[in-house]
Amino acid sequence: MTAIVEQIIGHTAVLTMNNPPANTWTADSLALLKQKVTELNANKEIYALVLTGEGEKFFSAGADLKLFADGDKGNAATMAKHFGEAFEALSGFRGVSIAAINGYAMGGGLEVALACDIRISEAQAVMALPEATVGLLPCAGGTQNLTALVGEGWAKRMILCGERVDADKALSIGLIEEVVDKGAALDAAMALAEKVANQSPSSVTVCKQLIQSGRAMPRTQALPLERELFVGLFDTEDQAEGVNAFLEKRKANWKNR
Ligand SMILES: C/C=C/C(=O)SCCNC(=O)CCNC(=O)[C@H](O)C(C)(C)COP(=O)(O)OP(=O)(O)OC[C@H]1O[C@@H](n2cnc3c(N)ncnc32)[C@H](O)[C@@H]1OP(=O)(O)O
């Protein structure tokens, strides 16, 4: 059994978490995610990555709690390292990553969705960071990424009070961007990935860098960087192709260079 199943459809890679019964994370599945994202990042034909869970019930229930039952600190450090490396690789993916949340997204299962650029959830899904409920804490980016998305109030309700949110609530607090019917998350994510494929991949990479690096930068630094990278795009073939395709009233033929 492969813990992460990969499928390439056009310019999109679909990664399916497949670790029954709850698509939980282990050191091996996290290492595999990192490896796959690193390979996809090097593949210039891939513009979008869609992440989903196998089955109808779970996107992912987070870390396999059996791994933490014996209180082994070394094992905790290993898991924390694997979480960090895998999810940082995911957030550093140069294209657009979309979480298609098809069921429970709990703990590290929500944190992997938070490491994606965009989250689409099915109506029946439930999201939580319940690590404190089991004596742990969200060490896979959750305290930072959830707070950045929903603000301190809801982040504290979810992390400190263990509150679960359904898809409608998640939409209303900005945790996800779209709610779809049960069974429709993957199709909705693929439709969005198709829109990504119409964009210049060179522009997308640089825009994503600007949005992400801007979080930790003063405006006085971020705005000059935006102008500098705008000019830098004129070193790419995609820049000339995009403008000329518009003027010639044809579809652009992107090269990702
Ligand atoms: C840095 C990151 C840290 C973390 O991620 S810590 C982990 C955070 N996650 C959680 O705390 C979620 C734990 N799971 C649950 O609370 C529940 O599940 C749900 C609410 C998601 C669903 O509840 P229900 O519908 O009653 O299903 P079920 O019988 O609990 O789960 C089906 C099978 O899946 C196993 N399972 C679920 N989550 C985990 C997990 N995180 N680690 C290990 N096993 C898990 C169960 O034990 C059970 O298995 P069996 O059928 O053999 O009894």
From TrEMBL:
Pfam families, alphabetized: ECH_1
| Any GO MF annotation of the entry | enoyl-CoA hydratase activity
Any one Gene Ontology BP term: fatty acid beta-oxidation
Q: Give the EC class as a word.
A: lyase
Q: Could you say which EC number(s) this protein's record lists?
A: 4.2.1.17
UniProt-listed InterPro entries: ClpP/crotonase-like_dom_sf, Enoyl-CoA_hyd/isom_CS, Enoyl-CoA_hydra/iso, Enoyl-CoA_hydra_C
**Keywords, in A-Z order:** Lyase
* Top-level taxon: Bacteria
> To which protein family does this belong?
Belongs to the enoyl-CoA hydratase/isomerase family.
Protein name (Swiss-Prot/TrEMBL): Enoyl-CoA hydratase
Species of provenance:
Shewanella insulae
